[in-house]
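Fold this: Exostosin GT47 domain-containing protein
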Amino acid sequence: MSLTSIFLLLYFSLFTFLTTHSKPHLPSPYLSPTTIFPNYQNMLKSFKIFIYNPNTPFTFNSPSQSLFYTTLTLQDSAFVTQDAEQAHLFFVPFPSDLSTRSIARLIRGLRNDLPYWNRTLGADHFYLSCAGIGYESDRNLVELKKNSVQISCFPTPAGKFIPHKDISLPPLASSHAPTNKTTRFLGYARFNWLKESTLVNELSSDPEFLIESEPSDLNSYAERIASSKFCLFEYGGGDVSGIGEALRFGCVPAVVTDRPIQDLPFSDVLRWQEIAVFVERREVGELKRVLARTCGDRHEKMKGLGVTASRHFVWNETPQPLDSFHTLMYQLWLRRHTIRYVRRESA
């Protein structure tokens, strides 16, 4: 066993002991704080994926998709198996711009040429599609959409995400850390984070908020995030790609939305209500009152939990424990239990 494996085993054993014997009201960013780390360690040792060979080489348009795919398909990946009978899940790779007709043809080929799809009607298969796949009448696309695990980009277009099975990719985040962490503003946002022009205009004239355009200096951008108690995002049209950076730099995300959000990254791992504020789309005065009620001890707890959770939003060229790649793999591991349909042999 390598030194890294020994270290991880000791780390997870200690963490499990501490969380199991801690007071029940101790705050945690995790939905299942006493089980996530033992399960994660089991995933590292046991999880196996069979990857179908694509007909031709291709690349993904999304950086996070591309990094996930590249990391998973590394030659020395511990998760990949060449023995399909040992696989927990099957990965169906295809390019982002592949037409629905071509995707249907691809699934039809898997159904006819290999036995694995038919055993579960695709329920132990997963695929990458940044924009998500819509509902189609073709049987192959219906089974892919309804049964297989879709890994899409966050946010996923409305109607193209099924919460109980699908997963969303966290966006790539900056590696620049802030040096000045003095809190100066109640809220911070970039113009593209908010789509409602009236809200942007009102916030821009309020001295408690800092609303700015795309910064050219990433260091100053990180410091501006860290200088604010809340980072404002608008779900459904606004740019939410900075939500992981906000968590990392201690700026509690305040997400303005007019509907429940079902595709939050790592939604079956993290307690989002403990690390972010979700605000109904409303006037600035009411928005400020909601944020003011979350200040004080409540804000400090959310800030600390958010910083802890932010480790899961970091993408690394070489994957590290608990980073985005490994947390995505953990979510896939949670979805490995599928029903294998018994096929009757013809007489």
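Residues 185-313 form a domain with the Rossmann fold fold (CATH 3.40.50.2000). Strands lie at 49-51, 89-91, 125-128, 149-153, 167-169, 185-190, 209-212, 228-234, 252-257, 277-280.
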